[in-house]
Write a structure and sequence with these properties.
With 361 residues, this protein is mostly beta strands. The protein contains 1 helix and 23 strands. The longest helix is centred in the N-terminal third of the chain and has 8 residues.
């Protein structure tokens, strides 16, 4: 599944490879907007700013404005290869949001322009409502992707992932959240193998909980297990994930199977088990997080299992008050796959490095 989420963070950058499975829109920007202070952030992955208008007003009105340009390292995409030819695409993404007190509303756009094929531009639009309280958080994003059905697999995709979080601190659990998922794709019928009018849809849920083994309160090193589990069921869907969070998702047509027939039901199970080791030393904060990820996709008689590992690390330095610099590095190693009864080991490796800085003023 292609999902990417990027967060405009005022405190930490959480790598997009870790927990992007539900976040079809940068709705976490709303939480940072609600709870953040006037600040600017610049990095190799994204840039953005938040401005608090309270000091300019006679009353202490908690009114804030924020915006960001996202996914800077992938504005030009060259990962797709068709007939041994590399395809180039332009993928700008942007976010703007407003907050008042504990409430926030955000809008995100995403474009996909195939520069090699000169196909029509695909565009997606996401609107999210956020609520952030001391112990609870709620997000309600709705995303719509619109494409030309003659050139792309999907013509119209709609998806929403409402998310409710319990923000508490104590015992083993920390920051527990539950997310619901619904997606639908409306595509043009191109053959006569259609014995139903039901459009491909997906429903599902995910659970996230940070299991705290040690805390900074009592130990110099904080050890946690940010575990995430997810289950999706596809109704007449080729894959059990339909998301309209980014325009390039229109490249996938969920209506038909590999043979051109009408898709049947599908199931996806996802489990992520990282171990995060964090330490503080004065103005220096560092963490390392090895992780295992298991994916199971079931479609008709096919079974695809994938187990792969990755590593993430970060270094933050605050040389002076309100100014923080950081390096976030991550990598994905080889994966072990099983399709039906056949095992396959892939030796692919991917890595990245984000350099960023935050100034709070």
């Amino acid at each position: 599944m292609k999902k990417i989420v990027y967060i405009l963070s005022l405190v930490f950058i959480f790598n997009s490879l870790s927990f992007a499975i539900d976040d079809i829109v940068d709705k976490d920007n709303l939480h940072n907007l609600i709870e953040g202070v006037t600040s600017s952030r610049a990095g190799t992955d994204r840039i953005g700013t938040i401005y608090d208008f309270s000091p300019l007003m006679e009353k202490d009105t908690p009114f804030k404005l924020g915006f960001s340009l996202l996914d800077l390292r992938h504005i030009v995409d060259n990962k797709t290869v068709v007939n041994d030819e590399r395809r180039f695409a332009f993928l700008p993404k942007g976010f703007i949001g407003l907050s008042y007190g504990i409430f926030g509303i955000g809008y995100q756009f995403s474009l996909y322009n195939d520069l090699s094929n000169k196909a029509p531009i695909v565009h997606s639009h996401s609107l999210a409502f956020g609520l952030a309280m001391e112990k609870y958080r709620f997000n309600l994003p709705v995303s719509v992707s619109i494409a030309d059905g003659n050139h792309y697999g999907g013509r119209l995709s709609i998806s929403t992932t409402p998310k409710f979080s319990f923000m508490f601190r104590g015992g083993l659990m920390d920051e527990f959240s539950i997310s619901l998922h619904y997606g639908i794709q409306l595509s043009s019928i191109t053959n006569e193998i259609t014995d139903t009018s039901v459009a491909p849809m997906t429903v599902g849920f995910s659970l996230f909980g940070d299991i705290m083994l040690t805390r900074f309160d009592n130990y110099p090193v904080q050890i946690s297990l940010p575990v995430k589990l997810a289950f999706y069921y596809g109704i007449g869907s080729r894959w059990a994930t339909i998301d309209a969070g980014y325009a390039e998702d229109s490249l996938t047509n969920y209506l038909y199977d590999d043979s051109g027939g009408r898709s049947s039901g599908s199931i996806r199970i996802y489990a992520l088990l990282p171990a995060k080791f964090a330490a503080k030393l004065g103005a220096i904060y560092v963490y390392a997080m090895p992780r295992l990820m298991f994916e199971c996709n079931i479609y008709k008689m096919d079974r695809l299992y994938n187990l792969h590992y990755g590593m993430e690390g970060e270094l933050q330095v605050t040389p002076i008050e309100n100014l923080t610099f950081g390096l976030t590095a991550y990598g994905e190693g080889q994966s072990i796959m099983k399709r039906n009864a056949e095992f396959e080991i892939k030796n692919g490796f991917g890595a990245g490095l984000d350099v960023w800085g935050i100034w709070r003023y």
